[in-house]
Amino acid sequence: MRARHTLAVVLTLAALTAGCTEQTREPKEAQDGGTPSVSQPSTWEGKADEEDAMERATRALNAVEPEGASREDSGMAALAQGLDRTFKAKGDRPYTFDIACQAAAPHTLALTLTRGDAESEWDVECGDREADQFNIPAGAPFTATIAPAKRDTDGLVLWRLNTVAPEDVQDCEDDITECGG
C-alpha cells in the first residue's frame, strides 16, 4: 500500500511540474527586418526598464571606483542627447573619468576626450558589468563628448569624475595625451 501511495505522489508531482516548464518569448520583428534579441527588447517598455538600467550602470560604476576615490562630479545623459561637457581638473591629485552605458539594444558609443590640442577617441560598450575608466592628470580642463544617438534610441550614460590617490592610477597616467584610444 505504501508503494502505491508513494508512486501516486511521484506521479502527481511529475504532472504538476510538467506545467511549470520554462516559457519562451518569441522576438518581435525589428523595423529593419532583422530579429532583435529575445532577452533584450530594442526599446524600453516603461519607467521600470529605465530604472533597472540606471541601477545596472550604477553597479558598473561602483565596480571600478577605487576605495579612496573622492567624487568631484557625476551625472547622467540620455543616449539621444549625447554628452558634451567640460570638466575642471584642479589640484594635484589625478582624476578618473568613469563612464557606463546601458541601452535597450546592443550599442557602442564613441567617447572623445579632449584637452587643449590633444584628443583621443574610445569605444564604450553599453551593457558592460564594469564601467570604462579613463585616467586624467590634474591640470587644464578637459572635455568629454559623445555624439547624440538616433532620436528614438532608448539608453543612458552615467558618468563620474573622481580624484584618486596616485597609486590608484592603473595602466596609463593620461588617457588623453599618452595612451589615446
Describe this structure in words.
The protein has 181 residues and is α+β, with helices and mostly antiparallel strands. The chain contains 2 helices and 8 strands. It has a 4-stranded antiparallel β-sheet with strand order 1-8-3-6. A 4-stranded antiparallel β-sheet has the order 2-7-4-5, with no helix packed on it. The protein is globular, with a radius of gyration of 23 Å.
Question: Main traits of this protein?
Answer:
four-stranded antiparallel β-sheet, 181 residues, 2 helices
Please count the helical segments.
Answer: 2
Task: Indicate the low-confidence ranges by residue numbers.
Answer: 1-41
Look at the helices and sheets and give the structural class.
alpha+beta
Query: What's the Cα radius of gyration?
Result: 23 Å
* Biggest sheet character: 4 strands, antiparallel
Q: What strand order characterises the main sheet?
A: 1-8-3-6
Amino- and carboxy-terminal Cα gap: 75 Å
Order of helices and strands: HHEEEEEEEE
Please count the beta strands (DSSP E, at least 2 residues each). 8
Mean pLDDT: 79
Please state roughly what percent of the residues sit in beta strands, choosing from under 5%, 5-15%, 15-25%, 25-35%, 35-45% or over 45%.
Answer: 25-35%
Q: Assign an overall shape.
A: globular
Helix content class: 10-25%
